[in-house]
Structure formats: structure tokens, C-alpha cells
Write a structure and sequence with these properties.
CATH superfamily: Peptidoglycan recognition protein-like
CATH class: Alpha Beta
CATH topology: Lysozyme-like
Largest sheet: 5 strands, mixed
Number of helices: 6
Structural class: alpha/beta
Number of domains: 1
Number of strands: 11
Radius of gyration: 19 Å
Shape: globular
Strand content: 15-25%
Order of helices and strands: HEEHEHEEEHEEEHHEE
Strand order of the largest sheet: 5-4-6-3-9
Distance between the termini: 54 Å
């Protein structure tokens, strides 16, 4: 989560990022010239090379065991002319002296226009371990909405892309998306759960479920229940064979 003018200190909370200047800025090509990869029906994702070809990870990153999906927001402006600028600022802060992470912690980020971006290197290829402030490093895929959803909802386009991304990740890693489903992991240390403590959380969680933080915003957090229900309903509809059909076994019609 990126905090704005008040900052995390004023709220007594933890922030996982903040906008920062890019020292090696380049001229980004127009968005209209970019391409994206179709990873699932109705979901296209821009690869990392389209925003950060000049910003490689600082260190190698290993794989993770995916147990749940974690929703964030950047808490930055909701006016986003080009999502790549916010993504590059996020990279600058999270790899800089304040965090010293090897790359952006979020696996994917979503713009108000509904565009989806691979932000942690290798995330399109497989389950790359994330850096996190919730002690859940190595257990969660992080999806971050660009904007501040304290008192404003994400755009319809952003919410639709979020749902499609969560469905894609749940399918890919076998995450149970029943709205009542939970998972348990052993904390690797946070301001909410000390290292070694078992933590049980919904399989689609908000950042504040695992850390003392405002992320993903008060209004954003209230939408989580609806997002869980829609994700699960969509997955059920996709696999539901429809009305029961008569089966034929050994020539006998069964109803």
C-alpha cells in the first residue's frame, strides 16, 4: 500500500510503499503501442517489460507456495493518466533505501482503466515469492489496485479486472474461493503477528487482515465480501453442467 500526504506514521499504521522519483527515467512509448498477453478468457496482462525494461530486479527471487490471494491499494491519486508512472514510482520506493526489496512486492497491479500489469518479475511465468509487511511472504499472490479507496470505490473497469485476475490466480494455484474458505500459514513476522504464530485468514483477503494497516482502504475493504462472492459464483457457473441430464448406463436410463 502506498500512503499519501498523511503517511502511515500519522495513522499509526504500516505502509508497504510510497511514490518515489525515478532516477533513470526513460521516455515511455504511447500506451496505444503496447501489447498484452491473453492469460485467460477475457483477461489480458501487460508483461513487465512494457513498463520496466530498464528497471530489473535487484536480486534473484525464488518460488512461493500459494495459499491465498491478497488485495492491496496504492492509496495514491485516483487520477491516473498512465498507470506505468505509478508502477515505476512504486518500484523506486520499494527497491530503495526505505524497503530494499528486490522488486515491486505486488505480483500484479491494476489501473483505473482496467489495465492489468505484471509488476513482480516472473509472475506471469509462475509463483514468485513476494515481499510483504504482513508476515505472509511466500504464501500469497499480491494484487494491487492503483488508487485510494478509503472513501471512493474502484472504477467498474478496475473491479472487473480485479475479479478476472483473482479468478485466474485461483485457477492457476488451486485456491478455494468459497466465500467462507480460509487458510492458515505461519507468520514470518509483522506488526500484527509475530514470527512463528499461526495465522488463519480468508483465501481472498485484504492487506489489513494480516497487518495493522488501512489498506485496501475502508471502502475497498467493505467490497471484499462482494468480490469473494462474485469470484466464486463465476467459477461455479463456468463448471456447472446445467440442469441434470439423464444418464445411460448399460442401456438403462437413469433419472
Amino acid at each position: 500500500m502506498l500512503f499519501g500526504a498523511l503517511g502511515a506514521a500519522a495513522l499509526g499504521l504500516t505502509a508497504c510503499g510510497r511514490p518515489a522519483a525515478i532516477t533513470s527515467a526513460i521516455q515511455l512509448p504511447p500506451v496505444s503501442s503496447l501489447t498484452s498477453i491473453e492469460v485467460a478468457p477475457g483477461l489480458r496482462i501487460h508483461p513487465r517489460s512494457e513498463w520496466g525494461a530498464d528497471l530489473p530486479p535487484k536480486r534473484p527471487m525464488g518460488p512461493e507456495t500459494v495459499k491465498f490471494l491478497l488485495v492491496h491499494h496504492t492509496a495514491s491519486s485516483n487520477v491516473v493518466p498512465d498507470p506505468r508512472e505509478v508502477i515505476r514510482q512504486t518500484y523506486a520506493f520499494q527497491t530503495g533505501p526505505s524497503k530494499r526489496w528486490p522488486d515491486i512486492c505486488y505480483h500484479f497491479m491494476i489501473g483505473p482503466d482496467g489495465s492489468v500489469w505484471e509488476t513482480r518479475a516472473g509472475s506471469l511465468a509462475g509463483p514468485v515469492v513476494a515481499d510483504a509487511t504482513g508476515g505472509n511472504q511466500g504464501f500469497a499472490q499480491l494484487v494491487c489496485l492503483i488508487g485510494d479507496f478509503t472513501a471512493q470505490a474502484p472504477t467498474a473497469a478496475a473491479q472487473e479486472s480485479l475479479l478476472r485476475t483473482l479468478i485466474f490466480l485461483a485457477d492457476r494455484y488451486g485456491v478455494d474461493t468459497d466465500p467462507a474458505a480460509t487458510t492458515t500459514f505461519v507468520s514470518r513476522g509483522s506488526n500484527k503477528f509475530r514470527s512463528g504464530v499461526p495465522v488463519t485468514t480468508p483465501t481472498i483477503s485484504g492487506h489489513r487482515d494480516v497487518t495493522f494497516t488501512a489498506c485496501p482502504g475502508n471502502l475497498g475493504y467493505t467490497l471484499l465480501g462482494g468480490w469473494r462472492s462474485r469470484v466464486h459464483a463465476t467459477r461455479l457457473q463456468r463448471t456447472d453442467p446445467g440442469p441434470t441430464k439423464r444418464a445411460v448406463r448399460l442401456g438403462v436410463h437413469l433419472t
